[in-house]
Amino acid sequence: LDLFCGVGNFSLPLARVAGQVAGMDLQGAAVRSAIRNATLNGLNNAGFTKMEAAAGARRLVELGERFDLLLLDPPRGGCREVLPHVAALAPKTIIYISCDPATLTRDLGDLIGLGYSIKKMRLLDMFPQTSHLETMVMLRRD
Question: So which residues are the catalytic ones?
Fold first, then answer.
């Protein structure tokens, strides 16, 4: 499950090795691009929905859905509104990509409180010659 999926930058490569990938994003143009990108790449196992992340996560919980992997790439404000639904979605692994150290720290604290532990963390210089960094964190619940 890829919440905040955008145009599928992360979910489409995952679809090449995963059985099924679902992505959600509030931006309709981004979701349409993700669908088009999946089609252009022959990926029939990736589906995308225009929906706000917390509402989508809540709906998936209501449907009893479970996921092996949860990918989170939220905007600068983080994804605190999604986190109450994470335990019920039961992903063993979470990949959290963040452009804001403060909200990342806050959200990681919440995820650790849900029983996840940080396994790997990497800084990515996606914007050379600026002070901006992306942080990618892998968490697991053992």
Answer: 99
